[in-house]
Protein: Aspartate--tRNA(Asp/Asn) ligase
Organism: Halobaculum gomorrense
Amino acid sequence: MHGRTYTADATPGEAVTVAGWIHETRDLGGIAFLILRDKTGRIQVKLEKDEMDEAMVETGLDAHRESVLRVEGDVKEEPRAPTGVEVVPTAIEVVAPADPELPLDPSGKVDAELPTRLDNRTLDLRKPEVQAVFEIRAELLRAVREAFRSHDATEINTPKIVATGTEGGTELFPISYFGEEAFMNQSPQLFKQLMAGSNLERVFEIGPIFRAEEHNTPRHLNEAHSIDFEGAFCDHTEAMDVAEAVTTAAYEAVAEHCAEELETLGLADDFAVPSGDFPRLSYQDALDRVNATGELDEHLVWGDDLSTEAEHVLGQEVGEHYFITDWPSEVKPFYIKDHDDDAETSTGFDMMHPRMELVSGGQREHRHDELIAGFEQQGLDPEEFEYYTKMFRYGMPPHAGWGMGCERLLMTMLGLDNIREAVLFPRDRQRLSP
Ligand code: AMO
């Protein structure tokens, strides 16, 4: 809309056109107020019934809450108005009417359950605290991109329709591809490795991953966004350095650029940017620390995966972001390299927030014959992955990388209870629409 002023920019003494949604109407008899809301905030529009054009006043008062109005008028200082200024209108137009009954109250006076909110995301995102989550998500992604660029990584985009999976056969969504079976990709894993073997050397991707897992938990989605890194001539420790730097950069950027949003979310006072130097515990140390607390019924032994409960106990113990390194080779996928001096232990690592896992990664097996052996050990047919394995015969340097869940990063950063709050239109067992 040409000549439109954001409500936050309306300055006393100016004639402006503002446009937005009716947040609230307050009719006090001779005088009434419309509170108009837009991307930047709210502004009061004053209607004086006896002194203003009758038709204009009626237009303003007849419009239901959440209708879209365009208001021309003069901005005046008004200490009693919520923002200290008000618009004295000269023209009011209903740009888009709203029904009198709404499925969700954007003013937040009436709480809505998460499913109702997700079914009506447009209305839900008219609430400042929900808007703030997605403004912060955008800033987080901007900062992550910038951090990768400063680590010489090039952004790539890889196919999401693939012929084979990598992260375990049961978690694939099959689709029909011109009569052939294909799948939605679970991870850019193989493609990013192929690019680490190219002249791009260091790459990153931010894109969707699809997991047909049955989990219906507050931290699993069936479509998530993964932040992936892969670097040639990197070992697992350098890959961990990059994960630490990217995470810290995201927090720093949000602290620096999203002060208002943090305030809206009630986080301004205790938003802590992580140290940037996360403790690195070996898997064995992690088991020992969990066992020493005596808080689990079971005694963890080598080869056990860490249950959600074990992760929770350990998170409480460590109290900040941390890595678990040197996982048993048997629990990590075929593409993770074992330690040269100990085939039982891998270079695989996880990066944890005290609440949950954020990242997994490791140094990759870059030697062709060992890679083929790894496929076979995992019960995968290397022939199906020939497009990938053959590149390991044409000069594949040592490389390492990781994948980080974008929603989990955002969710833990903002203390959200449910991962569905960190994505606009979540996909889960119950939810395929909107
Ligand atoms: P992994 O399967 O551990 O590793 O995934 C990496 C990170 O992605 C996030 N994530 C999810 N987030 C929400 N819902 C899900 N269903 C979900 N699945 C995964 C988590 C997890 O830590 N190829 C390897 C990465 C690598 O080695 O580079 C991989 O995909 O935060």
Remarks:
- The chain has a mean pLDDT of 96.
- The CA atoms of residues 102 and 123 lie 9 Å apart.
- The chain has twelve helices and 18 strands.
- Residues 128-150 form the longest helix (23 residues).
